[in-house]
Amino acid sequence: MELMQYEADVRMLGDALRARGWMLATVESCTGGAIAAACTAVAGSSDWFDRAFVTYSNAAKTAMVGVDAALVAAHGAVSEPVARAMAEGALAHAPVQMAVAVTGIAGPGGAVPGKPVGTVWLAVAGVGGTTAERLQLDGDRDAVRAQTVAAALVRLIQRARAVS
Q1: 136: CATH
Q2: 35 with 102: CB under 8 angstroms?
Q3: Which domain holds residue 127?
Q4: Which of the listed residues 21, 50, 63, 124 has the most CB atoms within 10 Å of its CB?
């Protein structure tokens, strides 16, 4: 994954967050830190990027950002409630005003009934509440991960610009 392909979006996100004096945290499962890597690939990101939680395992989701293990057991790691809990957990565990969380099935394995490869839940939490959406992405593992990073950046830009 070429990080500089996201440079324009990261610069827009940084400008929007910097203008509000906000800091960002990421909570990443299927992307393994790629959103954070894209953000920090651009000089000056320390003005608006605070930290990343790579919560690849279910245990990490619980230990690092407080996702209730019962929530994971009830809905699965790749679900709206878990994505929301991940994003909200970042707000509770970091001095930030905005957080993004992603959890998904990048493939090639891991699909379960109702959750094929390419299923990703993306949540954004912060001022204005928490939103979540299910993405159904195409392609191989690298393509799913790259599309997830791109979608996360776009949603963050939208939120940072929209909240008054």
Answers
A1: 3.90.950.20
A2: yes
A3: 3-162
A4: 124
